[in-house]
Structures are given as structure tokens and as C-alpha cells.
Amino acid sequence: MALGRFLLKRGIQGVLVVWGVVTAVFLLRFITPGNPVTFVAPLDASAELRAQIAADLGLDQPLYIQYVDYIGGLLQGDMGYSYLRGTEASTIVFARVPATVELAVAATIVAIVIAIPLGVISATRRREPADYGATLFSLVGISTPNFWLGIMLILVLSVQFDLFPTSRRPIGFFETFTFLVTVENGLSVPMNVGAFLDGLRTWLWHITLPAVTLGTYFTALVTRLTRSGMIEELGQPYVRAARAKGLPESLIQYKHALQNTLIPIVTVLGLQLGTLIGGAVITEAVFSWPGLGTLVIDAINVRDWPLIQGSLIVIGTGFVLINIFVDSLYAYLNPRVVH
Amino acid sequence: MSRDHSNVNRRTYLTYVGGTAATVGLAGCSDNGGSGEDNENGSDGSDGSDGGDEEQLPEPETREEHLQRANLRLNQRAPWIFLNRQYSVYGIASRLGWDARRDERIEAQAISVTEGEPSVAITQSSMDSGLDPHDHRETPTDNIVVQAYDGVLGRNADGDIIDALATDYERLEDGRVRFEIRDGVTFHNGDELQPSDIAYSVNRVVDPEVGISSPQNDQLAGVTGAEVVDGGVEVTSDGINPIVFSLFASYCKVVQQDWIESRDTSAINSDMNGTGPFQVVEYEQDVEIVYEPYEGYWGDAPEIEELTIRSASEASTRVSQLLAGETDLIVNVPPQEVSRVRDEDTTEVTAVPSTRVVFNAMRYDVEPFSSVEFRQAMNYAIDLDSIIENILQGFADATGQPTLEGFVGYNEEIDPYPQDIEQAEQLVEDSGHAGAEITLETPVGRYLRDVEIAQAVASQIDELSNVSCEVEQRDFASLAGEVTSGDIENMPHFYLLGWGNTTFDASQTIIPLLTSDGALSSYQGDDEVDELMSESQNLPGGN
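Predict the joint structure of the above. Result:
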């Protein structure tokens, strides 16, 4: 019950945060130089054509009217039309969400799969070669710029050895399932399993390098967190007691110490995942990955406000949802938070 | 077919006018340098005297002569630091045959396949901003749209006008031209092209009452409307509109009226129904578009059986895709990546001079740029050849006038300003602005190596003993907003800009950028240029 109230409170806060984001973006229009009409109209357009375009886009209205119209539309699920593309902002924005989520989750998985075992090994074999190796890896990982790593991976693994494609996302993760089942005349018809596996392989083949690129920094960060957390936990009295009780070392390390170490790691993972939803602009650009990050940057460059706002609402909502999830997980792991 | 040509012996005229005048212009810089024109005019913001002791030149007669004279005048008055003409640099798989076009368009119909599968993938820097052929201005969208939509007229790779949906065209009278429409042309939905579709397409671009406020409105500058008369289409203009055929050769794709009117904006932007050589098979916004040849196409069938256009914003990614064989043709290979593409056996680099000129505009109404000597000095300070060689790896041409070679009105007797530090320092002294501190504002990443060019320009000016110059990097949105504000007071004093002009006519560069009525002119109040351009627009003789 306490958890329910906690989530409700967090939910209301989340709505307020998203509303705040929309409002802040509207206010930014006042102080951001550059008029969207500059990009829609040709550079040498007459004042009349500029005025006409501004009127068509609704930009001739006072800001508060534009704001009220926009919020009104938003409540009905309408994010408006992209100034430059002429299509619904929501269609463009939501089309980018799967790619962003896939990349963020894949990078997180890369981080978890590599970082946690590496951190544990590093902590349990302090001052041994494995520890030095893991520490060096995390130092290099944290220091390596994303764009450099991405380009190097492409040059070596794609261009030189032809092991992975250089870029693009020809198929989405969930799209691969359309090969598996389709609906004809109201009936589900099983489809080609081979095509599904091919699709999945293509997806995996294309997401590997971007996920590794994006996940490297993240992996290094979590490795260090795991290592320091484990070292701290392994020095706690309960570990000494467990050892004295004769519990196997692996049980002590993985069941007890690691579980306690996981609390801050989960928090960091959640926050980082939220950041990744906001867009991994450089990784997306290097791998031509059609995510939200590049969409927002492109939209900002041409002052396409409906797209900017739509994207920020989605990113803000994603961030809020992840935080609520992490908070509730944290609340579950440590019930004192609820109070 | 009726086209206007000059009867004057152009070469003889140019030898006299251009050659003499250029000499006068350069002589004027040194001999008259100390006249202190700026002092006379600086207070009222005008642009100095006309150089009254310059040799009297014969009056220009034809339109082309007017434009050439305007270019000469502008070279002498130096409203810009004349920089370079950009090249379009492409990377292409060796198995393809293709000649790059000067107008930056990629018409896939002209691609031939000498080896391997007859499918071709093209990777641009970005995808389209919607598929409505009348609701965009940028080249990436153009490249996607031109595969499916035809124009009334077209251009070959050299920029010459060729027939397209019109088989004949003539000027009926000042301000009225007529197009005869090709028979048997069908849209991709199978419906036959009607003359009314062409009239509707023209009106949709020029008349905001017909559907949209097209951003291409000014691409058909002067055109007021179109109507069907006796099975042909007659287009009316304000004034004589000498370049009307040139405009229709570059702009105004033809749509089917019924198809457009029965769809909402989103639908028009998500599909194409043209008369062009390729029809859309699959379109995923922001990701890729796939075409197949349209069997009912009125012209020669394309060699390609499947065409895909995608995008990668990072140049290095495009190059990697090409080298890995994932794509066949890439745009905008940056100079530093050229050797990677050239060194590979399966790929080549192809480059062609574009229609874009890059320059540093100097506002005529603010000190120190109100002085013609100071502006000339800035041109003399620059080592353009070094910028082209070292920053652009040779993929550019030096310019000395706003109009590019091959355009109507280009004055081939004008040479780029040579670097002459002594002359530059002397002119600065003469201008009365020794010790001036100036700032060059440049967009970042808008034009090929724009920041590097600006930094080189600024450092070369800074090397003058009596001027100091620094660079300010600007977001293009805010810089462009100031330049296009319509009020010269809002414009930066000294800025880098690029200007593309695919009409191949001098007027479409000079009028907007360098005349008193120009929408984004940094140089106003030069009666001679204004008069020459105004007269040129009322004379026949466009491209």
C-alpha cells in the first residue's frame, strides 16, 4: 500500500516534470535566436512569402496562444505538424523510439554482461593481474571518446575484416517478429521461422557495433562501481561472519556481497538508461542509427519546434518512467525509501 | 523553339569592355587609392564615389553585356571577399558509370551499371524533408523527388536546357510564354498527363491560394500564373522575365492535380505520383526509399532495376559504407577522405564544379567596410590559391566576381584578386582605417570546411600590419536569421556565406545579394549595379 502511494506520488511528479519540459521549451523560443521560417523559406524569400509561411505555421500568433493551442492538442494526442517535413510530429518521433530503446537496452546489456563479472573478479583478486587488467580496461573505456571508438570499430571490423556492417538499422527488433506471425482474415497464420531468424540475425549483426561503442563507457563505469562496492562489502562484518560459518566463498561473493553492491549499481544503470533514451547522438550519427538523439539535434538546427517538443516529451516521459521504475526497485530493495 | 541570342560579337565586346575595365579597376585601386572616398561617404553610409576618373566604357546593349558589366563593377567595388566556387565531390563504385552534374542533383536514370547487379544504392547526407515536390528547398530532398517527378523542362549534366514534359516552348510576348505538352505521358498511377496538371503545378508553386505557400515561390521569380490555352500551357510573368525558361528547367516538378487534391499534407509527403523514370516501391521516412523503373516512362528506360536512397550524416560513415560495398554512390566526400576512396580499387572519386559560390560579405554601410579601398584591401590580403590547395585539397575554383563560370553574365576577363600584402596595407592606410579590428562571423559545418576557410581568411587578414581580424563561429540558424531579416541593420558586419544558384544566370545571385532591393543584400546604394540589373531584367536573353 505504501509502495502504491509512493508510485502514485512519483507518477504525479512525472506528469508535472513533462509539463514543465514542454513549458520550458516554449519559453526557450523567446531566447533562442533563429526563426523557423528561415529554414522553410528560401534565403532570398520576399517578406510577403515569409509572412505567409509564418501564418501557415501559426507562428504569427502570440506565444501564449500557440502554447494554449499546443497543450490543447497534446491533451488530444496531437503534437502538431513538423514545420519542415509537413507530416505529423508524433509519427516522426514515435518512429524513432524503437531504435533508441533498442540501442539503449543493448548498450546496457553489454555493460551488465561484461562489467559485473569483471568488477567482481577485480574485487576478489585485488592486486593480481586480473585486477590490474580490469582496472586498465575501465580506465581506457572511460577515457575513450565514443566517436573515435565507433569509427575505429567500423574501420577495423567492418571495412578491413568485413565482420560487421558499417552502419544502418535495416530492421527493428520487433519487426523481426512480424515474420513469425501474421493475421490474415482475422486468423493468426504462422509464418516463416527461417525468415524470423534471418531478421533477428540481421538486427543483431547491425546493433553489435553501436551497442559496444555506446556500452563501453558504461561498462567501464559499472566495472569500477562494482569493484569498489564489492571491496567495501567484502570488508563488512557479515562477510567475516559468513566465512567463519564456513559458507563457500562463491556463495558469499555472489549471493551476499554482490546483492548488496547491486543497489547503487541498479540506480546508476537506471539513470544511465534514462540518459541513453535522451539520445546517444554521436553513436547514432557515426552508425547512421535512426534514433531520437539525431532527430532532436537535426530539429534544433532547423528550429522545428513541433519536432523538438514532441521528442522532448517522449524523452522526458521515458526518463520519468525509468526513474519511477528505478525508484520503485530501490524502494523494493530498501523499504526505508518509501518512508 | 525560340531562344534569344545576342547578335553582338561577344568576344570583341568583352575584349574591349572587360579587358579595359579590368585594367581601369586595378589601376584605380592604386592610383586613386588615396582619394579618401570613405571620408566623403562614410557618414551617410553610402558606398563611395563611382571613381569618376575611370575610363568611360561603351554602353552595354544585350542582357549578357549588362550582367557582365555588373560583374565587372562588383569586382572593382569588392562588396565581398571573393572566395571560392565549391565542388561537388562524390565517391562512386567503379562498377557504375555516371557523370556528376553541376547542379548537385543526382538523376539515377543517367547511371549505368557495367558490372554486377543492376541495383544501385545512393547514400546522401540526409533524407528528404517530405516527398511533396513543391514543399522543400534542399538538395537531398530534390535528389529523392527528381527520380519520380519530371519538370516542364530539364537540364543535361552540363546545365544546358533540354525538353522534358514540354516538347516546345516559345516567348509569345513580354511576360507570356507558351509550352507545348508532350503526348502520351502517364503518371505512375496510370492516368494520362493533362496540360491542366502542368498549369496546376505552376500555380501551386506561385500562388499561395492554390494549396500551399510553397517555399519554391521565389524559384519561379516573376511568374504570376499559368493557364491552359488551346492544348498548351501559357505562363504569365511580371515584366519580360528573361530567365523564365531557365527557371522552368531547374524548378517546378509536375504533379497530378486530382492526386494532390484528394490527399492531405501527410499523404502527399509520404508517397509520390509523378511521370518520372522511377516509381516508389517502399518509403520509410528518415531511413530509406526504394524505387523501381516505371514501365510507362515516356523517355529512355533506366538501366537500373532497383534504386535505393539512404542517408548517413557522418561523412566518414558514408565513405566506410562505400568502401565496404554497402552503397554505390556517396555525396560530399570531404577533402581529407578523398585519398581513402581513391586508393581503393573498387571505388573512385568524381568531382564537378557546383553552382555554389562561397564569399565573405562586407556590409557597405558600416565602417570600415564602407570604404571601397578597405574592401579591396581585404581581397588583396587573401591567398586564395593556398586556401584552395591546403584546405579544400584543390576541390574548388578561385572567384573574382559573384557569377560563376558557365553562367549567363559571367565575365571571363575578370581574374580573382591576387594576394598582394603591400597593396593591401597601402589600401588600408588610404582608407583611413589603419588599426581596424574586425570580426568574421562564420556558420559552423554549413558549407564545406567553412570554419577552416574563415580561420584562414582571418589569419591572413590578421597578418596585415594595420588590421586585426578574428573569427566568431555562429550557429547557422541565428546567423541566417540575421542575414534574412530584411533589415540591413540586423545583419552582421562581416560574414561568410555560400550561395547556390541553379538557374545558371548571374541575376539570381546579384539581385538578391548585391542590389539595393535584394532580400539579403549587404551591398546597396550602388546605382550603377542597380541600373544594370534592372535593365537586364527587361531584356531578352536568359539561359
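Chain B touches chain A through 51 residues (CB under 8 Å).
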